[in-house]
Amino acid sequence: MAYRRITDSEVRQALLSPEAEVVEEYPTDKYSPSCLIYGVTARGRVLHAQANARGVVVTVYEPDPSEWVDFKRRKPA
Question: Mean pLDDT per segment of 10 residues, for the chain of length 77 residues?
Fold first, then answer.
């Protein structure tokens, strides 16, 4: 997160935002089932967070618009 300049506060805002929703599920992830969550910070920054079934945030990033439709569906390859 530090490398991507994403603060803990922004992660909390995105995960607790009214817009937050699970956009992908990974039930057979290597260590534990997980999912990808779309959220928006108070300043309007779109973030994706991958969290496991225990609620541990694995990674957070700003999605690349060239790879996503409305940041919720992957564009076809």
Answer: 83 96 95 96 97 93 96 92
What φ, ψ does residue 72 adopt, rounded to 5°? -120, -20
What's the structural domain count of the chain?
Answer: 1
Contact between residue 19 and residue 40 where contact means Cβ atoms under 8 Å apart? yes
Q: How far apart are the C-alpha atoms of 74 and 7, rounded to whole Å?
A: 25
Is residue 16 in a domain?
Answer: yes
13 inside domain: yes
- Structural domain span for residue 23: 8-64
CB 49 within 8 A of CB 19: no
Q: Does pTM surpass 0.85?
A: yes
Strands 57-61 and 46-52 come out as antiparallel
